[in-house]
Amino acid sequence: MALKGLKVIEIAGLAPAPFCGMIFSDFGANVIRIERPGQPPLDSLIRGKRTAAIDLKHDSGKGIFRKLCTNADILIEPFRPGVMERLGLGPDHLMSLNKGLIYARLSGFGQTGPYTKKAGHDINYLALSGVLSLFCSNSKPVPPINMLADFAGGGMTCALGILISLIERSRSGLGQVVDVSMVEGVRYVSTYLWHTQKPDVPARNFIWPKQGQKEANLLDGGAHFYTVYETKDKRWISVGAIEPQFYSALLEVLQLDEKEYPQFDLNRWPEFKTRLAEVFAKRTLDEWTRLFRDADACVEPIIEYHEAEKVAESLSRPYFNTDGTPKPAPLLSRTPGEPNMRDPQQNEHTAEILLEHGFTQDQIKQWSGEQVIDCQIESKL
Q1: At what angle do helices 182-189 and 157-172 cross, to 10 degrees?
Q2: Among 21, 91, 232, 297, which residue carries the largest CB count within 10 Å?
Q3: β-bridge mates for residue 303, sequence order
Q4: 148 vs 185, which has greater pLDDT?
């Protein structure tokens, strides 16, 4: 696979950092996940990784960790700023031992500034990014599920930063710190929205004709041709008929006269939304899906997550793994991601990993007795 041979150390944390590590594992990297002794995994994104339970607060545990990082390409750490420095495992120290180490630091607010010590979650990062204000229902901000800040602005942005750093390292031979702030990551993902808010950008009046008003613009649910509607069977259908040809196709299927529903008569958008809602409420989701199947109108059913695998099969795309989870994306033509679907047991590989890095069986037994590490000694030694 594409990332075969890369050595990644991932310190266990909440969802964004494990997701970043999973991306590397899915595409072939050797990912070692460092967990606290005696603490069960808090997340489910551990497939294909090897686990080692090491106490990073113990001097011997720190020594073990330093040795692992000396032989690694990438370190992914999910703590608040300053934690690794207090442990004596900050980037200045570890990168002096391994000048090619990519030291990725994934946090809510970044490594500098007054917010570095604050706790937060996806909803807070969205709030401070300015993006949450754009998700409204009845003029009240409604947070999306935690995919945007945690996974797009966090885990995915972290993986991108690491890969960019690896390419640069191939020229310079040097690693660097990747400082990932989920607030900044979600802003970057939303660059298009920022760009279209500028007064000198032609798209502004198209995207934000009533800037400052909620649910009155093209992409915030204000447009009758870019929103969702409830169907007769209490399901939902999505409409994204922005371009004129798609709008014409939409009205044709709905049997509405385009002359009576001019697309960009902004003052009548609420009226048009009400009328389209009445029309969509007359048929079931399956009926509308059949009617729009051959119409190039940008109208698709909103499926439940448990229906996604069946829909993927109908598209003849290898979207799902054998356990029903999504396959790695993007799909590479020569070296696609092929995840190892097995989840490791807690501290399963501690002894195996330490032996690979030159530690002896006697050292491993001693550290296990001192509770510096957890390992399945009987099966590994």
Answers
A1: 90
A2: 21
A3: none
A4: 185
181 half-sphere exposure, CB direction, 13 A CA radius: 19
Cα dihedral 312, 151, 73, 167 sign:
positive
The CATH number that domain 7-188+328-374 falls under is 3.40.50.10540
- Check if 150 is active-site: yes
pLDDT band, very low/low/confident/very high, at 139 (cuts 50, 70, 90): low
Q: Are 299 and 292 in contact (CB under 8 A)?
A: yes
CA-nearest of 280, 257, 263 to 224 is: 263
Q: Which of 150, 179, 220, 374 is catalytic?
A: 150
Instruction: For residue 379, name the pLDDT band (cuts at 50, 70, 90).
Output: very low
CA distance 298 to 253: 12
Q: What is the pLDDT of residues 153-203, one digit of tens each?
A: 999 999 999 999 999 999 999 999 999 999 999 999 999 888 887 777 777
Average pLDDT over all residues of the chain: 91
Average of per-residue pLDDT across 279-285: 98
**Of the listed 58, 93, 121, 357, which one is catalytic?**
121
Query: Selecting from 3.40.50.720, 3.40.50.360, 3.30.1540.10, 1.10.1040.10, what CATH number does the domain 226-302 have?
Result: 3.30.1540.10
Q: Is 290 left (phi over 0), alpha (psi -120 to 50) or beta?
A: alpha
Which of 43-47, 124-128, 227-231, 293-297 comes out lowest in average pLDDT?
43-47
User: Rounded to whole angstroms, how far apart are CA atoms 34 and 38?
Assistant: 12
Which residues lie below 8 Å from residue 302, measured CB to CB, with a gap of 6+? Answer: 228, 235, 236, 237, 238
